[in-house]
Amino acid sequence: MFKKILIANRGEIALRIIRSCKELGVETVAVYSEADRDSLHVKFADEAVCIGPPPSRESYLNIPRLIAAAEITNSDAIHPGYGFLAENAQFSEICESSGIKFIGPRPAMITAMGDKALAKETMRNAGIPVVPGSDGIIEDLAEAKKMAESIGYPVIIKATAGGGGKGMRLAWSPDEFERQFQMARTEAEAAFGNGSVYIEKYVEQPRHIEFQVLGDQYGEVIHLGERECSIQRRHQKLIEESPSPFMDAELREKMGAAAIKGSKSVKYEGAGTIEFLVDKNRNFYFMEMNTRIQVEHPVTEQVVGLDLVREQIAVAAGAKVSKKKLRQVGHAIECRVNAEDPSKGFRPNPGTISGFHTPGGYGVRTDTHAYAGYTIPPYYDSLIAKQIAFGATREEVVDRMYRALEEFVIEGVATTIPFHMKVMKDARFRKGDFDTHFLDSFNFSD
Known about the structure:
The chain is an alpha+beta fold.
């Protein structure tokens, strides 16, 4: 086991990693920007190092400063959390060459799965179903139009280096294809410095269902069941649950086997997620692989009874994954509490929290780095808490989540709590009758 781990992240995930490290008897080093000086992860780590001013590129994305912080504190491993450099192959490679263990996949694995077009080709070669579309990057407009015609409208144009819905455009007909193609490329170039795109058949009424996988250094991979992630805004998840209300035993078996097969095809090591689109007829297609721990990992933890961060650290230190088949027991739901105003298009609402009270009681878990008096900086993601409820049945958990949200008090900034409460009362959500377009017809007014 490692002696000291530097956490190259901030907020609730940094605090979450610190907790697992403490239980393992591993010392921790927090890094922070000047804007995060008063964050809880700084207070709870054994050591803390300031790595620069507020902008991410000068702090959390500054690889030389992170490596220097690891070296001066004698850290023998770095945990990247999620976001920032968690899926950066160069960072993984630099850690490796510096004699510091990167708690995550090796550089080649990140590269293979990080480029969406390459990942799709890799999975297709492994025999995993993929959405019909271009074999890779497509740059010529005339060629792109031919491809769209051959797979049939509607089609979706996606940035190969994309994420968070950026560089993604939908074309319903030939008349609008050229405009959407150019807009996707322009947006991708602005967001990622890479304007490359590929084209896929648009799956109508899709569910977004992902499988949690865990691989060790000896070629073994297991899956820990699925998560339903279809409640989204602008392709970013808001509510996740496990198991999915859409799944049956046969589909779970097929998709789980595909997730393991796909992971083994790249000799995957660490915690990761294989994400699928599932149509109304239960046909599933590989969408992407996230080579890191996910924001929504707590719902899997609650239904399989495992600390995923602890397992992630253990396999990075050389432990083998358990070959014992793990079963999902009960149900869990997570609501992402963001400092955003849902009534104004989920506009970010940074500021100082004047009052803060988290809910309690049986079957309730709150992961947060926020507190009364904490100032939410405008420089980073707006996530301030993850509210999790769990229990024996989905119906029980939906009711418990509503009760927990009702108890959750955050004053001073607008949050997504009122939105989540409305979803918990929505008839379609309660029946499990929804897809990724749920919010398109959702009534945000009181």
